[in-house]
Amino acid sequence: MQVSKSLEYAVRSLVFIAESEKPLGLSEISQTGRMPKAYLAKIMRTLVEGGVVSSVRGRKGGYVLKKVPKDIALYDILSLTEGKEKLIPCINDGKFCYASSFCSQKVVWIKVEKAITDAFKKVTLKDMLPRRAIGKVKNGRAQNYIS
Amino acid sequence: MQVSKSLEYAVRSLVFIAESEKPLGLSEISQTGRMPKAYLAKIMRTLVEGGVVSSVRGRKGGYVLKKVPKDIALYDILSLTEGKEKLIPCINDGKFCYASSFCSQKVVWIKVEKAITDAFKKVTLKDMLPRRAIGKVKNGRAQNYIS
DNA sequence: TAAAATATGGACTTTTTAAGTCCACATTAA
DNA sequence: TTAATGTGGACTTAAAAAGTCCATATTTTA
Fold it and tell me: How would you label B80-117 residue by residue, b for 16+ Cβ within 10 Å and e otherwise?
C-alpha cells in the first residue's frame, strides 16, 4: 500500500511543465527532477496517451499541459500511471470473492476505497504548484500570491 | 497502490475469530476463509505480536480477540500487516527528497496521506461484522459469517 | 539538405516486494 | 503418550515496480 514512484515522477514532471512557458523537454525534466530519463520517457508517454499533456516532437520539442492545472486531478494521474488496477482486490476481482454479495466486509471495503479515491480526486495539479506560479503571468509580471 | 492480501486475510480471519466463542484454530480459519494455512500462520503471528489477538497453544488451541471489535481499527491491522512502511515515499524517506522543505508538493502529499490513514482509522472490526453476529453466538459453535 | 535534438514504441532486464512454503520445535487437552 | 495445535525462522516463488535499451519518426536549424 504505497504510492508508486511513477505517480511521484509524473506529478513532479507536471509541476515543472506547468511552470514552463515553452515545451519542456525530457532531458530537462529528468535532470531538474532527478528522475531517470528513460523511465520518465515511458511515464510521459502514458500522460500523452491519457490526454494530460501534449507532446511537441522534433528539436525544441517537449511537453506542454493539455489542460489547466485545476482540471488535472491527482486521481487522473494515478489512473494513468497505475493502470486500471483497483485498490481492493476482493471487491474488484469478481472471481476471487468466494463469499460474493453476502460478505459483510465488502460494503466496508467499498467505503474505504471511496474515501481513498476521493482523496485523490479532490487534489489537483494546481494545489501542487508553488503559490507564485499559480496565476501565470500578467503584463509580463508574475502575479502575487492569491489563494 | 493496492491493499495487500495480508490485510485482507487478516481482516477476514479476525471476523471469523470475532464470531467464535472458543479459540479458533488456524486450520479452521484457513479452510473457512480459503486462505493458505502456512501463510496465514505468519500473519497470525504478527497479529499476536501486535496485541490484536491472543493465542491459545496446544490442543483445542487457537486464537481469540484481545480487544473488542470496536477497538480494533482497520488502521491497526494495516500497520501490523504492512510493517512500518509509509504511503508516500517522498515525505517519509528523508534522503530521497532533493527539494526538501521548499517542495510545494510535500504539503499536499501529507494531506493525501492523512486522508487515507484517516479512512483506515475510522473503520473498525465491528463495522466488518455481519449485523446479526455482533451481539451473540449460537449454541457454542462458531457461526459462519455467510448466511 | 544534413545534422542534431527531440519524442515514440516496444522489448527487455533488474530490483524489490508480496505471497507462499517448509520444517523443526514448543505446548497442551484428552 | 499422542495428536492437535501454535511458534520461529529460513527459505522459495511469483508478481509487480522500476529501470534500460535501441531502432525509428519528427522537426529545427546550421
Answer: bbbeeebbbbbbbeeeebeeeeebbbbebbeebbebbe
Which of A15, A90, A119 comes nearest B105 by C-beta?
Answer: A15
Residue nearest C18 (alpha carbon to C1'): B4
CA of A2 vs C1' of D15, distance in Å?
Answer: 16
User: Which residues sit opposite B73 in a β-bridge?
Assistant: B124
What domains are defined for chain A? 5-130 (1.10.10.10)
pLDDT digits (tens, 9 = 90+) for B11-64: 999 999 999 999 999 999 999 999 999 999 999 999 999 999 999 999 999 999
Residues close to nucleic acid strand D (C-beta < 7 A): A 4-6, 9, 35-39, 41-42, 56-61, 82-83, 85; B 1-2, 23-27, 38, 41-42, 44-45, 48-49, 55-63
Kindly tell me the number of DSSP H helices and DSSP E strands found in chain A. 7, 4
Q: Would you state the cell numbers that stand for residue B126, as one nine-digit string?
A: 465491528
Would the Cβ of A43 be found within 7 angstroms of any atom in strand C?
no
C-alpha cell at B84: 512500518
pTM (whole model) above 0.85: yes
Residue-wise pLDDT for B63-101, tens only, equals: 999 999 999 999 999 999 998 778 887 766 555 566 666
